[in-house]
Amino acid sequence: MDELSRNNQMEDGGAQFGMRNLLILCLRRWRWYVVTVVVALAIAAFYVKTTPPMYKRDASIMVLDGRQESSALGKMLADFTDMGFSFSDKANVNNVIAAIQSPDVMREVVATLGIDVSYTSPGTFYDATLYGKTLPVTVKFRDIDEDETASMTLKLLGDGNVEMAGFAKNGKAVDSEPLQCRVGQTVHTPLGILTIAPTDYYAKAGGKGKRIDVRKSDLNSATGRFLGGLSVAIGDKKSTILNLSYTDLSTKRAEDILSAVVDTYNEVWVKNRSRVSNSTSRFIDERLAIIERELGNVDTDIANYKSKNLVPDVEMAYTLSMERADKNSATLLDLNTRLSVARYIRDYIADKANTNQLIPVDLGLENDKIDEQIKNYNAIQLERNQMIANSGRQNPLVHDMDKQLAQIRRAIIYSMDNMMMSLSTRISHLQNDEQKTNTNISANPTQAKFLLSVERQQKVKEALYLFLLQKREENELARAFNADNTQVIKSPTGSNAPISPKGSVIMLIGLVAGLALPTAVIYLLEVSNTTIRGRRDVEGSVTAPMLGELPRIGGGSRNVSQLKASFGIRQAVGGECRIVVEAGSRNSANEAFRIMRTNFEFMAASETAGSVTMFTSAASGTGKTFATANLAAVLVLGGKRVLAIDGDMRKGSLSGFVGNPNKGLAGYLAGTYADAAELVCPYAKCPGLDIMPVGTLPDNPTELLSSGRLEPFVDEMRRRYDYVLIDCPPVNVVADTAIIARNVDNTVFVLRAGMTDRSVLPDVEKLYLSARLRNMTLVINDVACTEEAFGTDTGYVYAGRHL
Predict the structure, then answer these.
(1) Does an H or E element contain 406, and which?
(2) Closest CA to 472 of 362, 600, 328
(3) Phi, then psi, of 500 in degrees rounded to 5
(4) Which residues of the chain have pLDDT under 50?
(5) pTM over 0.70
(6) CA nearest 162: which of 195, 191, 134, 133?
(7) Residue 69 in 3-state DSSP?
(8) Which end of the chain is more exposed for a tag (fewer CB within 10 A), N or C?
(9) Phi/psi at 362 (nearest 5 deg)?
């Protein structure tokens, strides 16, 4: 049979398996579910008991900006946004989230709270975490560095004494005898100097004999571990409220970590903002000192010149002689002020002494590009200085940032040069215009011109001086009101119920797993089973008539056999072959053989002599002998004369019913015995049933069957009995069956549910269509009662009992 036919057979059989059939199979095997559900629930309960509970605490903060400030302080700070302080909403919320979740902030929190040292107490199912009210003592490791680990065990002895043992450093045990000391005492141990200090809850949390396991983690790993429990998310896209949550074994520790994270972030933010303010203040003070000296010199020059030359008031001279110069003077004043500020900032940047200093911001340059460059430079400079403080100047990132700062500094100088050139050009144009005006008033004395020029310088310096004084006051005001960047909306709170493990959810998962596992096994067993299961599997592929179905004797499970068959493993045939037909019995086996007898009598009806029928199969172990013996017995119960012949002279299974005598069919065919009737043995347990045994198993059964004595023997038995049943070897395995088939009227082909593969059915169909076996009918043996689930429509119901 080709592979395509085999695949079609398997698909046809698998199509009969649906949800209803699966449900029936599952209900039949309810004991599986009881066992798996109990085991799964036990495992789930054990997991719930042995898993430490995790708790969650939530907090909310608002990132402040100018629009959100309602207090006097907020309004005042909002008025000074030109000083470089921005309170952005959405644009900076993500930056705040990144800053809060940064390792630097968490490192500071771990160091501040001292949670790099953990305390646990052994429990029945898991180690309990000690913190807050449950922690009686704390241990301070004085000689253990931040990048080292250490562990030890404490045992409270009562009366303020404690015993230390189990010392380990950097994962290696340290040999030492247990040490004892008093609580609050500093002692020398194998881990260096330790201080065991009592907490405020020592009296309540401590108890005699209580064991505490102490473990100090290195700061980096502790930071990473605690950072993993923190999450920050934006509460609403239209607001600047951030929701912080922390998951931990201790509710108190989770609350403390959330509070410390917010406080630490605010401290860092205020510190960074103060650095910018301090740098701006230093720059303004330096500029004011220089301008004050220059302004004093100009005032002295004007006073001396007026006193020497008796020059009248310059303003009066200008009012009388040059009204047009007013506009030029105002413009020149503004341009010279901006030019001076630009020159001061340019000199400050070019000065190598200020290379790593912050550049003053918002000094009235009125150039957005330069202001943005200076802000970017200050931000990178702050980050560089912080990185140097944390990792030193040898960090490659510091060198990269120095290069970046140098490039930005050159870009700023270039922009300042362009701006100064532009201002100088405009001033030059105005001065030319002023020169033309001065030419038109040639009547003014030379002294007036000199005073005009000197007083213009005086006004420029006075304006610049007043401008810097104003900026200094604004900067000092901002420094005085250096408020936090965030406001706590909701303090850390949460339920005391653990978020994990969820007992109900885990038990539900256990229940589902307990129900799903046997269902999956049953489904896999059935869909992978390629053997026949009942009438419908056979009728879909073989057109030969069905003589009957024989139920499984004893009701045992066939799941293991099906599993072996699905992987191509042929199951061994065992068990006792016996006659189960009994007079007056109405069990499933007896009723099945009565139905088979009725069908058989209709098929084997003959008007001349007795009917001769042989039983064969595709392979051994299908129950041919069982079917032959029991059909013969039920025919006898019906008042018929029946002879059962053991035609399988290679095994002689049927001969076992009469004790395997030495005389039998083999001796008759060999010519040893002349009268076949003398070799027939009556079966004592079933009066009226005669059996022709094989006798001594011959070495040449095929030659004996072909000797010519078989046909006369069959004819003689046909005249003596109503029915002659011959138990034959499997067809196509040996030639014996083909020789016997020449002398019979009918053939019963025995299939076995759970053993005969569906791929054999096309071969059976070919045998039927080729008529090599006369009047072939089918018997399916070992059909389980559950086979009705596969649509066999052969559920036997007699005497209120399902068969």
Answers:
(1) helix 396-440
(2) 362
(3) -160, 145
(4) 1-16, 66-77, 79-80, 82-91, 314, 317-318, 443, 555-575, 607, 786-803
(5) no
(6) 195
(7) coil
(8) N
(9) 55, 55
